[in-house]
User: Fold this.
Amino acid sequence: MVRRCVICFVVCVLAPAVPASTILSFTGDLRTDANFVDCGLGCSLGSGNTDGDYAQWAAVSMSFVVPVSSTMTAITFSYGGGVNGSGASIAEGGFQPYLSLFNGSGAFLASTFFGVTCPAGANINSISGACFDVSLDGGVLAPGTYQIAMSSFINLSLAENFGSGTLADGFSGLGNLFPGEDLHYAFDVVLTSAEAVPEPGSAVLVFCGLLLFCLSVKKSRLAMYWHISGR
Assistant:
């Protein structure tokens, strides 16, 4: 038994640790979900506005929490279609997506203006023949609350456009909607912990350690018994 536990100990120590990843999936429709609907001085988008108006002006932002220091990436699916991180099938035909990342106070951090268009795994839209899904590299994020906004290319935030201000200042109104596109969106936020998490084999290591401890205690008690009994 001791020999087996020693072997188990060696195997578990050598087992590689793997980073812990969390995937947050977001889906919806820009017309119904938009929480930025200003369309110029004294103008606010409503039921009377066209999908094109929403694509030009609207944006939707969501909050997410980073529990431990993690690398962050985001990838869209709704232009070319595909399967998101939750296993849901996403239809093609959404608007050309634009993602913007902000911290909890609304300060601009990154966008897909310099992101990757048609990242690995993205699909080609069967109608346009183009691949306009995008990925955003948010770098390493400290623990805290962050906000990510979805809009139509190239409806960037005023904070990004002017290099100052916050998410609350709104968006530039430079989005577009091309023939064959609608207002549905889908993207994943992927958080990969910078702290490696041991594989399940470590549980076996703990178990073997406890066995070794119990065996050592048992041997000590036996030695004491033989000493006292004079055997």
